[in-house]
User: What shape does this take?
Amino acid sequence: MTEEEKGVNKPVIYSYPMVRYTDMDETMRKDVMEVCTNACEKHTANNEMCAKMIKEILDKKFGASWHVVVGEGFGFELSYEVKKLLYMFFAGTLAVCVWKCS
Assistant: This one.
């Protein structure tokens, strides 16, 4: 049996949202994750439309000045309001960073 057949070298691909970092309270985190997941599922081929959908919904739901980055292979350093940051991965390599800064 080879190493590939044993699953030794296979990358792990998550099919569910995985939070990398957040400081949001539990109820806000669940709401924001649901919005992000729905947008990523709806706009699988267009990250720009996905980010726009997330921003518009969060602005309506939690007030203005939300910022969203959706993509692969990016880094960031930002200023944000306390308890208003979520960084998650969806479907393996697609990252979503959502924060509020007014």
Remarks:
- The mean pLDDT is 88.
- The beta strands are 18-22, 66-71, 85-90, 94-100.
